[in-house]
Amino acid sequence: MAERLDDLDLTAFRSALGRFPSGVTIVTTRSEAGTLHGFTASSFAALSLDPPLVLVCLDRGATCFPDFMAAKRFVVNIVTPAHAELAMRFAAKGENKFAYGGFAFDEHGHPLLPDAAAVIGCELEEAVPGGDHVILIGRVRETRTGGDEPVAWYRGGFLRLGERAA
């Protein structure tokens, strides 16, 4: 029997959402104590050009949730095909996620992937409740772009992006 919430079939809802390809990011921060934290997010978007704002959604049940709520800065790394396995590790709970991947650090000590499709350094502008997630709104302070194309998440797997549409 399908799981239901307020007369909505949640399995069908998840399946419908899975039909929308979305980008994949690894979002990172460093606590004031110096501990590294991160998670994989496909709910990421540009919010505003003036001022420059982005948003990313974080599950309230994530182990790193309190650390991101206390953080003043975070980094959004847009994942390439080379980061697919790393993104899966950052989507899971437990283990030292930073033991894998070639992380470097920005001038504030926050981890970043130097070979990401793009890296967006943010100051936390606001955290807005959104159901079982919180929407982190970041004021963009710096950006870097890489040479490889990003991947998308589609129907439970990674989708490599091909040629650009005309």
From TrEMBL:
Domain Flavin reductase like: 17-160
Keywords: Oxidoreductase
SMART domains per UniProt: Flavin_Reduct (SM00903)
This protein's record includes keyword Oxidoreductase: yes
Source species, domain of life: Bacteria
InterPro entries in the record: Flavin_Rdtase-like_dom, NADH-dep_flavin_reductase, Split_barrel_FMN-bd
SUPFAM superfamilies per the UniProt record, alphabetical: FMN-binding split barrel
MF annotations from Gene Ontology: FMN binding; riboflavin reductase (NADPH) activity
Record-given protein name: Flavin reductase family protein
